Amino acid sequence: MSKALYIAEKPSVAQEFAKALKINGQRRDGYLESQDSVVTWCVGHLVELSSPEFYDEKYEKWRYEDLPILPSEWNYQIAEATRKQFGILKKLIEREDVTGLVEATDAGREGELIFRLVYDQAKCKKPFERLWISSMEDQAISDGFSHLKNGREYDDLYRAALCRERADWIVGMNATRLFSTLYGQTLNVGRVMTPTLAMIVQ
């Protein structure tokens, strides 16, 4: 029997989805399963942008003359803390009885990014649909599952998320290294954090 694989963002949300899908089976290691559905979760970001030293070993040392660091191609890696859960997701995605996926991460830019990076990193080509809900009430979840959208309708949202993520990396990595090397101590700089702190100081 073919099954749909539902990928949520957090374990607690996956539990709510499993309840809505009437999955009463025993919880497995990293997922829940019934005769026609499998529900699993991402535990936040499973896939992240590679650090500068991945691109060149010289970036292991912070030097003013090596800045700015601007990758010509972007590389991703599995987050060490969540490697096990990514492995579980990849095996579920590759199962022959899983014929399609349901992107059930949070409805927004970050939720889109979390799912798509896992999908791409797992080299998945299976079709996927998108659950888009703004409430975790039982009725809202049921209605959402009854009105799934074609996942490709959200490609532009994914591109926007990639732009945000890469802009954060460029600003964070370069500005942090710049000010740290100029002032001889670690000074963390971020796209959101630094302007926010500046407003508090003012």
Explain what this protein looks like in three dimensions.
Strands 2-3-4-1-7-8-9 form a 7-stranded mixed beta sheet. The chain is elongated, with a radius of gyration of 20 Å. Helix 4 (109-121) packs across helix 6. The mean pLDDT is 95. The protein has 202 residues and is α/β, with parallel strands linked by helices. The chain has helices at residues 11-20, 52-55, 83-94, 109-121, 138-146, 155-183, 193-201, and strands spanning 3-8, 27-28, 31-33, 37-41, 47-49, 76-78, 98-104, 128-130, 149-150. Helices cover 43% and strands 17% of the residues. It is built from 7 helices and 9 strands.
Q: How helical, in percent, are the residues? A: 40-55%
Number of continuous helical runs: 7
**Largest pleated sheet:** 7 strands, mixed
Number of strands: 9
Q: Unreliable segments (pLDDT under 50, ≥5 consecutive)?
A: none
Beta-strand content bin: 15-25%
What is the structural class?
Answer: alpha/beta
N-to-C CA distance: 62 Å
| Order of secondary-structure elements | EHEEEEHEHEHEHEHH
Widest beta sheet: strand line-up:
2-3-4-1-7-8-9
Overall mean confidence score, pLDDT: 95
Sum up the overall morphology in one term: elongated
What oligomerization state is this entry in?
single chain
Rounded to the nearest angstrom, the radius of gyration is: 20 Å
